[in-house]
Amino acid sequence: MAADNDPIIKVRGLKNAFGEQVVHDNLDLDVRRGEILGVVGGSGTGKSVLLRSIIGLQPPVAGEVEVFGEPTLDREETETVDIRKRWGVLFQGGALFSTLTVSENVQVPLREFYKDLDPVLMAEIAAYKVVMTGLPAEAGPKYPAELSGGMKKRAGLARALALDPELLFLDEPTAGLDPIGAAAFDELTRSLQRTMGLTVFLITHDLDTLYAICDRVAVLADKRVIAVGTIPELLALDHPWIQEYFNGPRGRAATASIERQERSSAEMVR
Amino acid sequence: MNADFTDEGGTLRFRGSLSLAQLGNLPERLDQQAGARTLDLSGIERIDTVGAWVVHRHATRTGAEITGLSDDGRHLMEQVQHADEPVAVPAKPASPLRRVVGEIGDATATAGRTMLGLLAFMGATTIAFGSIIRHPARFRFNATVHRFEVVGVSALGIVGLMSFLIGIVIAQQGAVQLRQFGAEVFTINLVGRITLRELGVLMTAIMVAGRSGSAFAAQLGTMKLTEEIDAMRTIGVSPMESLVVPRTLAAILLMPLLGFYSSLIAIIGGGLLCWLQLDIPPVTFMQRIREVVPITDLYVGLVKAPVFGAIIAIAGCFQGMQVEGDAEQVGSRTTAAVVQAIFLVIVLDAFFAVFFTWIGWI
């Protein structure tokens, strides 16, 4: 068992390439236990490819990836089952199985790994997970085609959380959600992380999400992670892309809204 | 450590890790417990939402009180309790008799609606053809030529092979039967007439329905799912004109060519068998074919072919455009396109047979 202060995800010297086009070159990244790590980067910098490499869907050209202290690359699927049980992944579009209802979708991992579980309990677990992610209870028997984009994301999250994982991968969870829904999603991620001790690997473009819930932010650029740190730490760096990202008009708006919130909560305390 | 509990005079003391992986048979054992007033969770190592749910469920059922949770644990328990909403119970299934009758009714209604829809789609395709004739600039020449290649040229190999084998089989089976009357020479009549009149075009239609009708349905269905067709409409490109017309036109024009080609290859196959098995030399075979096959047989085949082509293309495009919702629909609609096309082709073929006999092309 890995010690508690070991990184939960350790990426070393990762290189990904599609033909001639190199996406990552010599990329290093550590994710600490219990943190919410935001991953940002311009479009096409390979954020999703990085996620796919870590979870083993995209075999890299070179490099090492360790999750929970165990290597995930070049291993048989049967060997990594114990690792897979301990993580949940939310894909960008939800990636729900279209022939199963929402409730059945959530039960898929349970059925796969805990066959002996009482079917009634399984249905109950699926039901409360669905409600926990902010969907109405009536959504359970619906098929993915009957849900809106935001509801699909929530259902996808419910499935990712089915096994009460220790590690959660979220690929742009708030993209395409309305601001209220996005804020609720952030709140949900935060509270799950607190109550269940989750580690969250979060790919996002949403500056509000970054400010609101991320403990640290990793910046992908020039084919590697150019910086990891809290937002103030990143702002202290003199990298043009980081400066433009956080100090552009949208970045300033997000900062301002966070400051406003902090002021108003401070006033309420007074 | 696995989750466990002990009953201490009205208090259930939980131990171990109340988590999904280490739950074991705790839910079943807990179900048999009743009468405990307090559920003491102070001794547990870890709790996740599944553990919290099991405890919460027991507490609601028996009215017991949950104590001894840490702050995080209490927060988790509150979240789980908060998420406890009555789950909609699925409706009770109807009696088998009602279900069977209902299903027959549903299937009949669906079949009727599909036929109406197909008819409407045929009309829409005709209108699209009409508007292209009025505005020839809107005709997609390149797309149509590309369809020619996909529907026609790429099918030459498989259609040829199939026809050749069918020619051989007809000649061989015919020769065996006709030999009983000493009339082997009529094998030539059999091969020549049946391939040109019926089998050449019919087998080609089945092959084209399987190759191209299914492809049309799957292409259009996927485009429907990925909202490409909606995008076309918003840009102002008519999907009927840009997708359906080129495909239908390609099928209409290529079916007679493929059918004729198929008939020829089948005759060659039959002739080869006659030469090898019945010792009829190719020259005699060809001479006899010209004598016994009336030119109307060729017309019968060539008149039917474009109609079959239109049916196949329209059924394929129609089913593709009906796709809504999920990926499974693409599959079921593709199947429906092929089944519908072949069925309609055979029904129409029967009508044609009666019609041509009636006008005296026998």
From TrEMBL, chain A:
Residues 9-247 form the ABC transporter domain. Keywords: ATP-binding, Nucleotide-binding, Transport. Gene3D superfamilies: P-loop containing nucleotide triphosphate hydrolases. It comes from the Bacteria. The keyword Transport applies. GO terms for molecular function: ATP binding; ATP hydrolysis activity. The keyword ATP-binding applies. PANTHER family: PROTEIN TRIGALACTOSYLDIACYLGLYCEROL 3, CHLOROPLASTIC. This is Phospholipid/cholesterol/gamma-HCH transport system ATP-binding protein. The lineage of its organism: Bacteria, Pseudomonadati, Pseudomonadota, Alphaproteobacteria, Sphingomonadales.
TrEMBL record, chain B:
The keyword Cell membrane applies. One of its GO terms (cellular component) is ATP-binding cassette (ABC) transporter complex. It holds the Pfam family MlaE. It comes from the Bacteria. The keyword Cell membrane applies. It is a multi-pass membrane protein. It is found in: Cell inner membrane. Could be part of an ABC transporter complex. Belongs to the MlaE permease family. This is Phospholipid/cholesterol/gamma-HCH transport system permease protein. It comes from Sphingomonas guangdongensis. The lineage of its organism: Bacteria, Pseudomonadati, Pseudomonadota, Alphaproteobacteria, Sphingomonadales.
